[in-house]
TrEMBL record, chains A, B, C, D:
The name this protein goes by in its record: Adenylosuccinate lyase
InterPro entries per the UniProt record, alphabetical: AdenyloSucc_lyase_C (IPR019468), Fumarate_lyase_CS (IPR020557), Fumarate_lyase_fam (IPR000362), Fumarate_lyase_N (IPR022761), L-Aspartase-like (IPR008948), Pur_lyase (IPR004769)
CDD domains reported for this sequence: Adenylsuccinate_lyase_1
GO biological process: 'de novo' AMP biosynthetic process; 'de novo' IMP biosynthetic process
Species, as recorded: Falsiroseomonas stagni DSM 19981
GO cellular component: cytosol
Length: 448, 448, 448, 448
């Protein structure tokens, strides 16, 4: 966790204080269930709730140090916590954690933390979607060149390009919801999951009050396929962040200049070259995506724990639990801000669209020629011939545009008039279905 | 794709013949839609369907060579196919692929292949679940030691252990279903996804007949976050295979011997040591899981294609599309066979369960002591003391079991009679909730 | 292994025939060593060499089928081979493989295969270096814009850009050599590496004749950290392939057009758009790099085998051994061909270099101003001001170049004449050290 | 970076204070070189060294906050630092960083940090090797069972097992040294690596004083293949940590009990089960290894930066630079402590060695039978027959050991007397080469 890539809301979920409060909540709920079941005295549950609440309400650094000190001796984190907690409860403390095992507390706590983290991430995606939808609408009909292989292909609109990201992040939202459901389970089933010394009703009680489902079969732990699926979902979302970041990096290239990250007053792009304005946010996001992707691997390796559990997953999760969610949260917020303020240059888009002498209309000509009776292969050759001739002289004194070259080609001229060619190449035809595609994603009837 | 780790059903999905047949089906459906829309003559669609069907019905090696030869010249796979296909259609071939771009065909075909692959994988999991449920029922009440950290913890049943895998593979089944839905979309939207030269109704027609949804916003391609999610799901499933394989490897260890892979007549475990019977299937599965996991990374890197697409994803998918699905399919089938025939040794389980002098009942004693009024810390110390004393003399002449040591401990004796201790340690208490857990997964009312 | 991404030379290394020939060579050498040591009769070694040589000299498909059939019964690949081999040797066959274990054969064979594969890869890099050095020299003094963040930075030469790849692939060559040395060891030490039934002199004999070092401590296997290091080296090399491929993809962009992959007569860039010429080779290489990178993960997971060995590494290596080396070999050859024939457009480089109105000289002006007495901050502001003004009006009617804007700035004018500014911005100053950098890599004295 | 998995020595390398001190050292050395070359006044270099030294000697939290504040405005970390530094230098501050670009400072600083980190890691491995060599010597002749596939194979010694790890960590040491050399380069070559505004002699001066080599061809940055190779090396070392940790986890299993992590007075193994002593250190190390492995992937993805650089690598390195080195450093130290204090149980090893009725001597019998004239296949069958019979009745009332079963087998009896069998099975034969293997690794003449 690097402070510069962290937001306090997400960091707080993973703080020791939060963890201890959730641990206490689990123990208190468990005690209340046991009291209701008659396993422990009713007064014990009351004492635990009262004494513990006071203890965790204001956890100080001294408390954290004290817990650490006990852990150094016992080498066991939950026992250290319970010992500290017991100091605030008195003799009834012996009824805390009855029949439970540490993993009951640890894994259920992790479930609470991961679902809270998922909630933040989902909210992040919602904020991003607001920005993306707004910008997509703003440029719904702004022509720009579509590119495949980095090569001009056919016209599209900048709004349509952005709409694709709207659709992707709607999918990412659904994936985060599914990932949240994957990990939102509670297990209080004892050392090997048999409920030998705890009653399943206790588990049900705790689960219900924490908003979790009951884990159908826990061993000592909640099975780690759930967590692996969670971190994989984060990796997919992060890769989506990278896709949009990569788009912006391309658009801001000096030769393209169709869009640009907002450049703040006072900002300096380079220590050496005062003229520089660099797409540093989107490059940063690219790196952050790599990091989040990297965390999926150890999460997947965590699945195959030995027998009813070993603790190898724990060190992994102490690292990637916070680091993956904090990094992705930061990345999503940064992306939202970047897209919200992205400077867009429609004139430059128009300029680039026209820069290749009209060859970007080659498919429409190809189709018109086949419709006019040429074979597909013959039409392809003719159009390729004129397009290459146009391309090779781009920017040269003897340059000729695509239309001129086509009309000068006897094979083309033989089956198509200049008027027919102009109809075929009419840019207006490119966008007739744009509104329909918008309606697919944003709903409503197609505009226009 | 290594033949020894491949099943013909899955291999067939990825054969050139299958691919070309799906390509043709897409082109034929598209032509029929265009004919219905009046874009091309009705006779053209008929000619395409008839001529093409004959062509793809019996693709010979000579056909594959011919297509390869054309591709070597054009350096374009779809054009090579269309040229070959056109030879069987005649002049109407010029109406094939009208307004479409190669990716329309390639990506929709990939969707068909991936959904078929997913269907096989889901069937594999179903078969595995049948085997696992059967074995879980078979050993529902067979006592065995539960282990955490590889150390004896508390008794459980072998059926309950297996039930955890049933639950995990039910989750894996759901993940495969979700993964199938992720990739089951069709895109026929032209070079940059604008439908400039194709009608969206054509896309709807093809999608419907192929059992796919329409991709809401395609660029030139179906966005690769879908495929990344698919391969991540496979990685999670593979990791579940590894978990069960690892369990079997542990159970077959010479010192454990609680279960064993079926050893065939004529089988030889080692070229050097005739006494060996090794868990080679489960070790093999462990390796296969690593391979499938490894394929998730390039799939995730494929997401951030440039602009409306680049073709970097293609070589990745040519490799991992077949390799990941073929390997996982093989692994699931091998796992099913292995679990189906697993030799289980309940007597040895009982032996191991008893081998530590009864210390595995320590929690129940701890609870009884706290219930009897000892502080949690005091009870913990007393129980730990007796347990360690038992452990350290295991197998020695002066060994004493846990019960004896406890009764000899003045602090314990002070608050608990031998009868109370025996009640506390009663093994029957360990399994009272086993049926309830079974009911959670297998349904029905708890037995007994 | 996908045929289209495979070269026969590398495929042959991993064929069953090659494997069986190496297995035989190991067994024959071992037998000869045993005969020399008196462990087996001298005639036995002669019979083994003679009978086995004949057997492996012409392995037919029928032989492969026969070995497979025996393996299906014994479920052991080495025993199947030895049985088949023995059929050609007669009664002396009982002296084959004396005291050895399968891994002695398998791992030493893998070492031979991996070193042969490494030799091919090193030769590939050598060929690539020849091409890269030639092209670097060719464009040693060809001005082009250097870019950071995709934004024009300062002039460089195209040869200098290529020289960086020369240096990188020289490092990659060294890494492949080191990787080769990692895996070039032989182990013939028996079932658990104790030499209980084999003499270490036998291992030394086999190692020497195969050109391998002796593994200092084998368990049952050669330790897998060696193989992990090997596959990591391949991943680094593949990432270098991707870096150069990415550079070409950028240079070929429609807006950049500074270089282009060779476009063959008859080649078709797109089924839909006849005007397209796409950087398909470099995009393909990008994907291949992802694949090779992905193989590093399972190789790393293979290291932690259980005890003296388990066989989980085997399925992984059956896949990634061939797949990683075949894919990287193909990628390197493809990259060499691509760079060899890359079409370079120096005029377009010059055009792009000039396209931003001279702001790319901003650092030189900044330095001149500070040398002339302005504070760093003041100079930075002044230069940034003029650069931004130039940038914002690029291509507009009221555009003014950087020099004009600077001279119109009172702060700049106050400390620098037009002549001084021209001296500062002189492009010739950019390249004074280019030859010196070339000399670092290509040796010789700096030219000029 | 998780505090519990961090050592202060390694953390300090990555602190902001350290980073700023290295940045200053680079700038001061550069200024001194420039002064010597006459590029800036000699007094300027003196002022920079003096003013800056005072400034960085005692960096307070207020300084860090001040630098952060400037960075928030300029959005550029190096400019923020230079501005803050300049406040302590006065007007000569304008001569700082002349002709350099931020990456000159950042990348050279990173090289210093990574080499320092490598030095700590190498020292860690040295300490581990001391412990491992000591323990290997201690148990050089302690018999224990060697296992393949988790199944008893043949006897080995515990020292020999440990010796394999000595050899592996000697290789890991060499890899870390190579990794250190990979990243130990300095680049001061200006914005695109052309030395347009800096003199290569300045780079040479800085490199020399920092103990670095000169980067032959830098672009704007030191090429990232170097860093990728570094992090891959860490991943290999971490996987070696996992291998040893896995061995200990196996040895401590309840059924094996051949070794055990040191259990401290006051330590508690489980909150629920007072009898537990778990291999928590080795399990923790297994998890840490997964984490370090996971960092290799983003490092590999960092290689293919765009053109002369983009800044996507930066966020990755801010995370994995510290996290990978800190985690591996901690893991190595923990492993050293664990191995240093590992409790070893030679009696239990002897017990396990004998537990399978002698079948672990099967290979020696097989060899003796073939030497006595039986065919390999016949001998194999006979030995397998007796071994399986022994195995199946292990622990049963009618159990018979391997020797008894063999002697009762007519085929065996026909060609071997009881005395010959005893000679063949003599355990002493297993260890005759152990000293020789020790001599390979630890040098000296074989003992005994």
């Amino acid at each position: 966790m690097v402070p510069r890539y962290s937001r306090p809301e997400m960091v707080a979920i993973w703080s020791p204080e939060t963890r201890f409060r959730i641990w206490f909540e689990i123990e208190a709920l468990a005690a209340e269930a046991m009291a209701a079941l008659g396993t422990i005295p009713a007064e014990a549950a009351v004492a635990i709730r009262r004494g513990g609440s006071a203890k965790v309400a204001t956890i100080t650094q001294a408390d954290l140090d004290r817990i650490d000190a006990i852990e150094r001796e016992t080498r066991h984190d939950v026992i250290a916590f319970l010992t500290w907690l017991g100091e605030g409860i008195g003799p009834e403390a012996r009824f805390v954690h009855q029949g439970m095992t540490s993993s009951d507390v640890l894994d259920t706590c992790l479930a609470v933390q991961m679902t809270r983290a998922a909630d933040l991430l989902i909210a992040d995606v919602d904020a991003l979607l607001v920005a993306l939808r707004r910008r997509a609408e703003e440029y719904r009909h702004t022509p720009t060149i579509g590119r495949s292989h980095g090569i001009h292909a056919e016209p599209t609109t900048f709004g349509l390009k952005l709409l694709g990201y709207v659709a992707e992040f709607e999918r990412n939202r659904a994936r985060l919801l599914a990932a949240r459901a994957e990990v939102a389970t509670c297990a209080i089933s004892g050392p090997v999951g048999t409920f030998a010394s705890v009653d399943p009703r206790m588990e049900a009680h705790v689960a219900k009050h924490l908003g979790l489902a009951v884990e159908p079969v826990s061993t000592q732990v909640i099975p780690r396929d759930r967590h692996a699926a969670f971190f994989c979902a984060l990796a997919v979302v992060a890769s989506g962040v990278e896709r949009l970041a990569t788009e912006v990096r391309h658009l801001q290239r000096s030769e393209v200049r169709e869009a640009e990250e907002f450049f703040h007053a006072g900002q300096k792009g380079s220590s050496a070259m005062p003229h520089k304005r660099n797409p540093v946010l989107s490059e940063n996001l690219t790196g952050l995506a790599r990091i989040v992707r990297g965390y999926a691997m150890p999460a997947l390796e965590n699945v195959a724990l030995w027998h009813e559990r070993d603790i190898s997953h724990s060190s992994v999760e102490r690292v990637i639990g916070p680091d993956a969610t904090i990094t992705l949260d930061f990345a999503l917020m940064r992306l939202t801000g970047m897209m919200d303020k992205l400077t867009v240059y429609p004139e430059r888009m128009a300029e680039n669209l026209e820069s290749l002498g009209g060859v970007v209309h080659s498919q429409k000509v190809l189709l018109a020629l086949t419709q006019a009776g040429m074979s597909r292969e013959g039409a392809y050759s003719a159009v390729q011939r004129s397009a290459m001739a146009t391309w090779q002289k781009l920017g040269k004194p003897d340059a000729q545009d695509f239309r001129t070259n086509l009309l000068a080609d006897p094979e083309v001229a033989a089956c198509m008039t200049a008027e027919a060619l102009d109809r075929a190449m009419d840019p207006a035809r490119d966008f007739v279905h744009v509104d329909q595609t918008f309606a697919r994603v944003l709903g409503g009837k197609p505009q226009g």
